[in-house]
Amino acid sequence: MDADGSGGEEREIESAMHEHADGQPGTFKLYRDYHEQLQLEGGYYVFAAYRIRGRGVEALAHERRPASRLPTLRWHGGGEHRGTEQATIGIVCVRNIGLRLLSHPQSSAVSTHRKSQTRLLS
C-alpha cells in the first residue's frame, strides 16, 4: 500500500497522464495482489490525472474511490515485475476525473474519445 489514510485505512495512489503521446486517453494500472489486499482491508484508491507542464507536472483532477467500487477488472500479464497480474482502467472511466478532464481545455484526447467510453463509474 502507498499510504495510510487519516483514519488508518489503507490507500493506493494511482496516477496517469491525461493523454499519451499518441493522443489516446491515459490509463491507470492496477496490480491484482495489491488490489485484493486493499479490498480485504476496506481500503481505497486515490486516482489522479496529470499533464506535463514545463519541467514539472500539473495535477488536473483526482478522485478517491473504495477498492470495492471499481468496474470489473480484466487481469492479464504485464505485472510480472511485481509478481502479479495487472489490469488497466481508462482515465475517462473514473467518473469525477473523466468529467473534469472533459471540461479541461487541454484534454483533447479525452474529449475525442469520450464516446468510446460510454459508462462512467457512478
Automatic annotation (TrEMBL):
InterPro entries according to UniProt: PDDEXK_nuclease-rel (IPR058715)
| Compositional bias of kind Basic and acidic residues | 8-22
| Disordered: region residues | 1-27
Top-level taxon in the UniProt lineage: Archaea
Pfam families, A to Z: PDDEXK_16
- What's the name of the protein? Uncharacterized protein
> Which source organism does the UniProt entry give?
Halobacterium jilantaiense
